Amino acid sequence: MHSIISRVNNVSAFLSTCMMCLLGAIALSSFLFTADPKGELTIAAVKVYNAKVPRYPRRKQEMAFVNFDLKADLTPLFNWNTKQLFLYLEAEYVNTEGVHNEVVIWDRIVRRKEDALIKVSGKNKYAFRDFSRKFKDIPTSNYTLKYSVMPYVGLLTWGEAATTLEPVEFHVEDHIS
Ligand SMILES: *[C@@H]1O[C@H](CO)[C@@H](O)[C@H](O)[C@H]1NC(C)=O
């Protein structure tokens, strides 16, 4: 009886060691096979309008509206250890106080390889505004499509799939004084 239990213990210890090695190998292999896909991102326009601040009727702020075109083939990021991708479009600019800001203006979760061929002509999903409430004296901004790969086993990895080639100007249509 005793020997059966100890044998079962040994076997299960052996199996869990195998399991750990296997998971380790899967995690490692996805580092070895990292893809670095590159797409195209163009910004059609960035227009700034005056908007009301919710709950503060007399306060005004400027909001930026970004129209972009994005094309990227992210299917190479899908391997046997890819659970899903998190894509996000980030605007980067330096505001009038010299603070470097990064703002996520659009995102998408991709769960299947079939959906990883990205072709979007769209506008920002999330409000784009500055703490100072103004974009007036901010010359330009840069835009980058970034992704993080969530694996089944192992650590998150990050990358950049597309970026604007030149800084993009803010077109202030209606500024606040
Ligand atoms: C935007 O990109 C240009 C060149 O690609 C770079 O010189 C500039 O520092 C970037 N601006 C920001 C705010 O990252």
Compact summary:
Helices cover 18% and strands 49% of the residues. The protein contains one helix and nine strands. Strands 3, 4, 6, 7 and 8 form a five-stranded antiparallel sheet that branches.
Mean pLDDT: 89
Biggest beta sheet attributes: 5 strands, antiparallel
CATH level-two architecture of the largest domain: Sandwich
**Based on CA inertia axes, which overall geometry fits?**
elongated
Give the fraction of residues assigned to helices: 10-25%
Topology:
Layout: H1 2-32, E1 40-53, E2 56-73, E3 82-94, E4 100-110, E5 117-123, E6 140-151, E7 157-163, E8 168-169, E9 171-172
Parallel strand pairs: 1-9
Antiparallel strand pairs: 1-2, 2-5, 3-4, 3-6, 6-7, 6-8
Bound molecules: 2-acetamido-2-deoxy-beta-D-glucopyranose (NAG).
How is this structure best described in words?
The mean pLDDT is 89. The chain has two domains: 1-32; 35-172, Immunoglobulin-like, CATH 2.60.40. The longest helix has 31 residues, at 2-32. The chain is built from one helix and nine strands. The strands form two sheets. Strands 3, 4, 6, 7 and 8 form a five-stranded antiparallel sheet that branches. A four-stranded mixed sheet has the order 5-2-1-9, with no helix packed on it. The chain is α+β, with helices and mostly antiparallel strands and 177 residues long. The structure holds 2-acetamido-2-deoxy-beta-D-glucopyranose (NAG). Residues 92-94, 142, 167 line the site of 2-acetamido-2-deoxy-beta-D-glucopyranose (NAG).
List keywords for this structure.
18% helix, Immunoglobulin-like, alpha+beta, five-stranded antiparallel beta sheet, 2 domains, 177 residues, 1 helix, binds 2-acetamido-2-deoxy-beta-D-glucopyranose, elongated
